[in-house]
Every structure is written in C-alpha cells, then in structure tokens.
Amino acid sequence: MSADQTIDHDSWNYSPAKLPRQSKIKLGRIHGVLPFTGVRNPGFRSSSSHRVWMTYRTAANDHRPEVGIAESAAEAAVAHELLLSPLLYDLQFQPLKVYLRPGDRKGPSYTHDLLATFVDGRRTLIFVRNSDSLQKPRTRREIEAIQAATPSSAADSMIIVDAGRYSRQRRENLFRLHEAIQTPDPEIDDIVLWTACNHRSLWLMRDLFPLLDLPQKTVFKSCYRLIARGALTANLDHVVAEWSRIEVAS
What pTM did the predictor assign? Predict the structure, then answer.
C-alpha cells in the first residue's frame, strides 16, 4: 500500500485502527502471589477492548493475593463489586469452558467469565455483556445454548449482568474501594463510623474532618472502607471524594 492510500486514523477516520493480532501477555511467577488459574488466558493485546490484570484475596486462599485477568473493564468491575461482599468465599476468572455442540470438542465453545462461590456454598456463574448485545435475539440464543451446554454440577445458577450498569466512574470507584479494603484498620473505622452516626448535620465527607483528631487522609481512607462494607453510602456514579454526599446506611 502506497503512502497516499494509507488511512489516517487521527484526522478523520475515528474508528479504531485494525492492527495485527498480537501474542497473549503471559505473566511469570510473582513472589508471594498465586498464579492465574483460569482455563483460558484472555490477556491478549487489543486496540478495541480493555483487558484488566488485578490481584485479589479471598477466604478460599487464606486471603493470599492471587492473579485475576478480566476480559473487559465491566467484567473487572463486577469482580471488584463481588470482592467487597462479606458473603463471598471464592472468585474464579475464566473458570470453565463448555462446548456448544454436545460431543464436538472442535466446534464452537464458550468460556464463562466468572464463578463466585459464597460462604453458604452457593456457586454462581456470571455472564457479562454490554447492553446493546443483550437486546439482540442472537445473544439470547447464545445464552440459551451456553446454559444448555453447562453441566448442572458446575454451579447452582447462572446470572446475566448488563455491563451498562457500570458507568466509567462506577468502575473507577469500585476499583478504589477494593484497593481501600486491602489495608484494614477496624479501630479507626469504628471511630469514624461512630462520629458519622452522631453528627446530625452530616452532609459531605469533609464534614467529618474537623470532628476527628486524625489526619485527613486517614479519615478519607476510612470513609472508603466504610462505603465498601456498606456502613456508609455514596453515589458511586459520581467521583467519591471529600465533597461527596455521604450518609450512614440505615
């Protein structure tokens, strides 16, 4: 292709440039971190989708950090939201591959996004897809085929999650809330929560700062942890910061 035939993707053609498929990114061993255990590594380079590498902790692995790879930002947000729940026991990324034609292991297949195991023993497979796709009859047929091909022993249920529920800001907030709970401080959290419960004119997060003999950053991090555990509420579709409206959960 000559220079005058080259399509300039910066000046007028705003769609992502079609680039050659690159090899998957493979992580080596990380000291003190459990490796990725999914049946498929979705971590290939892409110019059109957002792959997310993360470490997370669950009770199933004695809260040791483990590598997870999400195939989209929405899938990672669903994982972060699940990891905030005290009812979660284990979380697996890309946990199971099923073949859509019974007995045909060379035909079309599907790898489930997430498998959540809860402390009561329930296991739930999670299918994450964008809103437009979920409206299409083809996607509904695909979901039915996946459900039919998934053995009943794999999980107790399968839920469909609309990625449109996770705005960009909500995804960012869920990431930060998950990061906040990695450094717990229950004594500080009890003090901050007690102050919030007893401050009748509480409106913004920053209203708590002058009431506590603690560094502002300490109170700020505590508020994040309290929001993560549901003791305080905030609008996760807006930036959660000192000017955010917060309330004590009822």
Answer: 0.86
